[in-house]
Design the sequence.
């Protein structure tokens, strides 16, 4: 599990009255919390919504066998709250801490596309460039633009659907994958549709963009992330590990996964008998903590904490990483995943619209699932990190919590649909998504 350390007081969001008091406590449910707001008439510094959310989160975790979760909410209007629930190690009294590190999966895509857009802003490339200009040998490469890769509209095959690839990861979870190996797997398959024709979540797209970044900047993508995102935003607990590094900085929980890469190619939903066993506790998930994230690379290998994800998400949505022109382009690029149901969710240049209010991304890798999104109108920012990939029903564990938290802030119709990055789990999504991580409403591809 690694050494755990206590966490400092949550900093109040811009626009909040400076907190007259802050507290960190452990309640009877085992959660550890910190809050930041002005005391009410009873002297409490906890936002009113915390009392509503705490039992919801606790019950959902129990009902879906989610071992642990860390939640961070910042609201200029209603106050800030951060809490850790559950255990970091199955079978042990090992409480999660609010400063724990998690693999953040496809949230990494927002970093990759942000750097790509910064390079466009600097005139070092154009989002309208065909990928062939920067990386020859891509099927349809003379017609697929960098923007279409970033928007998941390229038509390329996602290597994560390949059976032999999944079997290889199952056989050796610590195998180090090089980006070029992943592309070779993808390019051995036919294109899925013509560029721009439709949305289809595909990790191959973001792997290509990572290689473009390295070629244009003449530096490792980890260094580009550090110079352009991590250091400017003060993200001291966020990292992009080398492909040979499968460790997670301390403190961190153990991460768990039901099923295998092969068994979850088409759905994360366990067979009925296995679901029953998992919920009864007789089927335990696999410890995937140190499985290599190299196969996700710039599509999903980053590591962070809820504090850093909150800072990053707010900067992402508020336009602190791009100039006004590029930020507008990014927000305007979001198109409905399902044109017949535009309010459900949208996807644009490395950015997801969840429902009608929250913008960000989510991510799932073996062992972990995270959600980070912010409302540009109200400033409400919600980050959830869990140490279970998908729950037995197939839904992403963090999304199970988020979907039941949002109505507290937005009302009963806050969650109009399902995850555009979700493969078909029978939960409302009909178009398979690539098995690698995520985007809104049911479960993220791995």
Sequence:
């Amino acid at each position: 599990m690694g050494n755990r350390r206590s966490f400092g007081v949550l900093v109040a969001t811009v626009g909040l009255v400076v907190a007259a008091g802050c507290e960190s406590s452990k309640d009877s449910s085992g959660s550890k919390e910190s809050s930041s707001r002005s005391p009410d008439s009873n002297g409490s510094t906890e936002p009113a919504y915390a009392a509503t959310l705490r039992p919801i989160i606790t019950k959902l975790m129990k009902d879906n066998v989610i071992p642990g979760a860390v939640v961070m909410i910042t609201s200029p209007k209603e106050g800030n709250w951060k809490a850790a629930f559950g255990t970091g190690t199955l079978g042990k009294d090992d409480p999660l801490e609010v400063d724990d590190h998690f693999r953040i999966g496809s949230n990494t895509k927002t970093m990759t596309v942000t750097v790509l857009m910064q390079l466009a802003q600097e005139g070092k490339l154009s989002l309208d460039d065909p990928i062939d200009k920067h990386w020859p040998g891509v099927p349809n490469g003379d017609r697929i633009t960098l923007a279409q890769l970033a928007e998941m509209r390229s038509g390329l095959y996602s290597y994560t659907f390949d059976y032999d690839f999944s079997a290889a990861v199952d056989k050796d979870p610590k195998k180090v994958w090089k980006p070029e190996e992943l592309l070779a797997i993808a390019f051995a398959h036919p294109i899925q549709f013509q560029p721009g024709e439709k949305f289809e979540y595909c990790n191959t797209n973001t792997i290509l963009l990572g290689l473009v970044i390295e070629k244009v900047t003449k530096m490792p993508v980890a260094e580009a992330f550090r110079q352009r995102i991590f250091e400017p935003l003060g993200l001291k607990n966020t990292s992009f590990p080398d492909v040979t590094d499968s460790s997670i900085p301390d403190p961190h929980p153990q991460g768990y996964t039901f099923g295998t890469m092969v068994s979850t190619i088409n759905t994360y939903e366990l067979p009925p008998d296995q679901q029953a066993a998992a919920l009864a506790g007789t089927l335990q998930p696999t410890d995937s903590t140190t499985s290599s994230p190299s196969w996700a690379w710039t599509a999903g290998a980053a590591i962070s904490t809820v504090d850093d994800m909150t800072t990053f998400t707010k900067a992402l949505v508020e336009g602190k990483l791009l100039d006004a022109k590029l930020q507008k382009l990014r927000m305007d690029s979001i198109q409905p995943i399902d044109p017949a149901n535009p309010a459900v969710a949208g996807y644009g240049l490395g950015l997801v619209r969840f429902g009608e209010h929250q913008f960000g991304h989510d991510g799932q890798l073996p062992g972990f699932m995270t959600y980070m999104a912010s409302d540009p109108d109200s400033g409400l920012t919600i980050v959830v990190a869990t140490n279970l990939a998908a729950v037995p029903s197939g839904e992403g564990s963090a999304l199970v919590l988020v979907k039941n938290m949002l109505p507290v802030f937005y009302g009963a119709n806050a969650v109009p649909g399902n995850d555009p990055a979700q493969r078909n789990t029978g939960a409302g999504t009909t178009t398979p998504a690539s098995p690698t991580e995520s985007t809104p409403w049911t479960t993220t591809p791995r």
